[in-house]
Structures are given as C-alpha cells and as structure tokens.
Amino acid sequence: MSITAVTRMQRITEASPRFKARMAGLSYLLGSLTSVFGQMVVLGMLVVPASATATAANILSHESLFRLGFVTSLMTVPFHLIWAVLFYGLFKPVNRSVSLLAGFVMLLGCAMWALSSLFQLAPLLVLQGKSSLSAFAPEQLEALALMLVKLNAQAYDIGLVFFGFWCVLIGYLIFRSTFLPRIIGMLEVLAGPGETSLMLWLLVKGVNEQRWKGQASLGV
Amino acid sequence: MTKPILEVSPLSQARAAGGLWWLCIVAGIVGFVAGAPLIVANDATATAVNILAKESLFRLGFAADLISGLSYVGVTVFIYYVLKPVSRSLSLLGAFFGLAGVAIGGASWVIHLAPLLLLHGDQYLTAFTTSQLQAMSLAALNLQLQVFPIGMVFFGIQCISIGYLVARSRFLPSILGVLLAIGGTCYVIASFANFLTPSFGPHLVPFIMPLALIGEGSLGLWLLVKGVNVERWKEQASAAAE
Asked: Which structural domain, as residue segments, surrounds residue B150?
C-alpha cells in the first residue's frame, strides 16, 4: 500500500460514513418536506387557478403565509445541496465521475429551484406596487401575479427534471455499491417508493460501514 | 466476496464525453431548427399564430434545448476527468464555467415556456387584450434569445481552457485543442459583439458559428471514436501525481 493510500485510509477513518449517511437522510427528509410545503401546500391553499382576482385577494390577505411558503421553498435549496454533497462523498468510492456528474446535476436543479423562488416572490411586488404600477389596470396586475405563480411552477418542474435525473444516477451508484441494499437502488431509479425507502434506510440504519471502507480503499 | 469496483478507465470517460458532446450538438441544432422558424421578427400576431398552430414543434424545441443542456453537464464532468492529468485546477475552472453556462440556460428554459402560458386564452388573462398577450409572448421570446449569447460567454471560456489543456496534453492531438480554443474565442467575440453593437453582431454569426462547430465537433468525434491514448494518459497522470 502506497503512502497516499495510507493517508487516504486515515482520512476515511476520521469521518464516519455512517454519520454522514444519517445526515444525508436527514437533509433528504427536510428537503422533501420544505419542497412539498412551500410549493404544494401553501400555493395549493392560496392559488385559485381560474381566477386571478381571487388568487390576488388570497395572497394579499394571507401575506405572511405566502411569504412563509416562499421561504420554505427557498430552504429546499440548501437542504438539497447538503444532501448532494454528502451523497457525492458517500458514492465517490463506487464511481468517481458518475458521483461528480450526479452532484453537478443536483447543483443545476438547485439553481433552477432558486430561480423559481424569484418567480414565487414576484407576485407580491406586482400586487403591492401601488403607484409605481398604476399604468396597469388592477385586473391586469392580478393576472400578471397569477401568471408569475404559474411560471414559478414551471421553473420548479424543470428543476424536478434535473432531480429525476439525479435519482437515476444515484440509483445506479447504489446498485453498484456494496454497502447499501441493491433493491433500493432499483427502486430509486424508478423514483417514488425508492426515495422514501432510501430516506428511511439512511436515517435508521446508515450504511454498512465496514463494506464502505472496503470499497473506498479499493476504488482509489 | 464482491468484486472490487475500480475506477472507470479514461477511455470510457473520453468516449462518454465525445458521445454526449455530439448529443448536445444535435439536440441544440434540433432545438434551433424547430423553434426559430416560428418566430416572425417584429410581428407578435404572426408569431403567436405560428406557435399555436405548431405547438408540438414549439414544445419539441424546448425539450431539445433541455436535453442539450443536460447532456452538456455530462460532457463537462467527463472532460474534466479526461484532462485532469494535464492541470487539475485549470480543468476544474473549465468545468465550473461550463456549469455556470448551463445554469444561465435555466433562465432560458423558463422564459421559453412563457408564451404557452400567455397564448392559450386562459380565463384569468382576460384583463389583457389578445394583442397585448401576443406582444408579451414575443417580448419573452426576444428575451430568451438574449440568454443564448450570455451562456456562450461562459461556454466560450470553458472551450478555451479545454482547448489549451488538449493542446498541452500528450494523449490527444494538439490540433484539436487549437481548433477548440479558436471556436471558444469565436463564441466570446460573437457574444460581446451582440451585446455592444446589436446591429453588427448578428452579421458575425454566419462566419463564427461554423468555426465553433468545427472545434467542438472534431474534438467530440475524436473522443467518441478514438478516445485517448490510454498509455500516455496514464504516464501523464502518474507524472502529475508526483
């Protein structure tokens, strides 16, 4: 074993992969909850898809709820970034370049979600513009506000395309790894149930530490 | 006992980079060919009529752009690994420029979808007249067209750094690096010409885009078909590690 391999082994011993796996599971849970709450629950409560006037009235009368929704959707970005970085480290021993590819894909998905949160905040600027926007009729501003909410949803969906692609890559890495159950990898590729089972597994069991170290030392 | 999973070989990474590069180029061209003819400059009504009449073509253009961007993330990662033995820091710098370029593309994808929201005659938009909605959707498309040259500034710089690394490498033909660096420089020049002199800039495009395509296409093809000289790649990698 070369000197670099020895130092690498020492570094691996210092940071516990099981702890990291659990932290990844936690950020997974928080990222999913904030995403669902900010994009689906809050907007579902306030937005009336067919009526711009009703939507505007809801947003203005529940401004703090609307702002809470925005903040929650924004928080999804850091949680997903933490998750992506931890997974990059976790799966690097399996395949370095595919792990980095997954990390970059998630980074870009997060950039999309950050962009979508700009559109999520914009309706307030349009609806509370007061005299600066008086060149537009109030109904026009209400229509613009609802359109911005819909644009936010589309930006969010584009982010989901990246997220889905990330799931496929991670599923492949789990499948090729020896330290997590293969069945989760297959489910992860199909997303949905795979995500939930992976989150629970990581939170409760972490990873098989001995095998992770074995693979880490082989994969350098 | 599970078999040890070893690092993917530079050859398969080079081939992946080349294949994805071509996917990116083809998808980019499909996106342009599908979308661009629908836009009638300075005529919002004709543009709106075209988009609604050929909505699936318009959506195909959007999907092709998205695929082009996604495959370029793959190009960026795999080329980073292929060129890491030449200079790790410069290779990483190039990759980050590539990522920034794709992130800018994200703005273009969102704006690309705005006309479909505006033009479908949704009940909630009746506060605007049809011609206002058509004007807004053409404005969105014009804004979207500006995203492309902004992204090209970043992709151009990435191509220059990749070109330099290829030229300095011992496992890829130097001429491919020179061609790519020329192509990257063309991207940057065309973009700034477009921002600073909008009347003159577009005239440069027919001369500059072929050069850029030659640079990207030839390196992509070489990586896909020939890959890299694995023996020399390993030599340079172990020399860099010392």
From this structure: 10-235
